[in-house]
Amino acid sequence: MMLGFLLARAGVRTLVLEKHADFLRDFRGDTIHPSTLTVMDELGLLERFLRLPHQKLERLEGWFGDYKIKVADFDRLPARSPFIALMPQWDFLNFLAEEGRSLPELTVMTRAEVTGLLGTGGRVTGVRARTPDGPLEVNAVLTVGADGRRSTVREQAGLELEDIGAPIDVMWFRVGREASGLDRAFTHVVPGKILITLDRGDYWQCAYVIPKGAAESVKARGLPAFLEDVSRTSPALKPRLSDVKSWDDVQLLTVAIDRLKCWSAPGLLCIGDAAHAMSPVGGVGINLAIQDAVATANLLGEKLRLGRLTDADVQAVQQRRAWPAKMTQAFQVGAQNAILTPVLTGANHVLRPPLPLRLLTHAPWLRGLAARVIGLGFRPEHVQPALPGRNVGGAINPT
Predict the structure, then answer these.
(1) What is d(CA 228, CA 235) in angstroms, rounded to the nearest whole number?
(2) How many separate helices (H) and strands (E) can be counted in the chain?
(3) In this structure, is residue 371 part of a structural domain?
(4) Of 45, 153, 199, 308, whose Cβ has the fewest other Cβ atoms within 10 Å?
(5) Sign for the pseudo-dihedral over CA of 353, 358, 361, 362
(6) Taken in order 210, 214, 219, 224, is the CA torsion positive or negative?
(7) Domain holding 90: CATH number?
(8) pLDDT tens digits for 332-367?
(9) 206, 226, 253 — which closes off a domain?
């Protein structure tokens, strides 16, 4: 959606295909980081955007056993919006779609599920889609797969995926907030258990971390046992855990950390989770995808508009964005190895924060550095000015 907005703003005729009727689904993390807020500011949209309901997260803190830990201070960032905005992703996407209505070059088509690629002579020339009105074929100079970690576009193109590995999965649920005495700590860790809580105004959005592949064994113990584990991790939630009435109220996120060896093929590009799936650690996935979109528009917008796009131009997106993706994944793998795995496999051990967390807690400048890594990323992108003129652009297939 962001890439469609940026390309249309640059004068490139662009079609965004969305398989659902709307964006109203639980996107889980829903964290809009300072890097994305900076992009919205550069687009002149930040003030209107922040009128939408949201909560501000200015610091990442948590409990590691009996120890209060401090991880990141976003208010130390050199940014106009030095905080994470907690906002449902459907509100974010709806906002972009509404703002995009003023761009004559942008078309958003819902209930259009991409089922395959069009091509000739080894070059992708568009997509096939299924719509309520029947099959649809879209011809495009460039097709962009932004359709997530189970990307149809990526699969149809036969692009090779490298699995980095993630030792965790996450079970998501929500409970009412008004009667809870829970503080705004982000993370709650006790021996063998990890819980993330996001303040969503009138409710807490909760992520209970489990070992990879353990969901069925957790469910086999029964919902009461699961909720008892949650209450032991954060006792303040116990009065509202009755809001979780069945397993239908608990969603499983199968965590993956992977990346494509090559993000593109002639006439095709993958970005976001379709190119590099991220762990929930740091909540950086959507924000890294937004950075990919900005870089893609900056690198390809003018060439698409002028009809001068080459395969080497498309490959330049990976050349610019692969390093930030790899560094972010390395950061996530480090957190997995140093914190998540030892906690989940050491249920009977006395908890003491590992050295990195102790250093962060006692060194404000390190928390500022952590805020840069989490909030801004390793290579923040900035919106280039819009370009005049018009030309046929690409088909974008989002999640």
Answers:
(1) 9
(2) 12, 22
(3) no
(4) 308
(5) positive
(6) negative
(7) 3.50.50.60
(8) 998 888 888 888 887 556 678 888 889 999 999 999
(9) 253
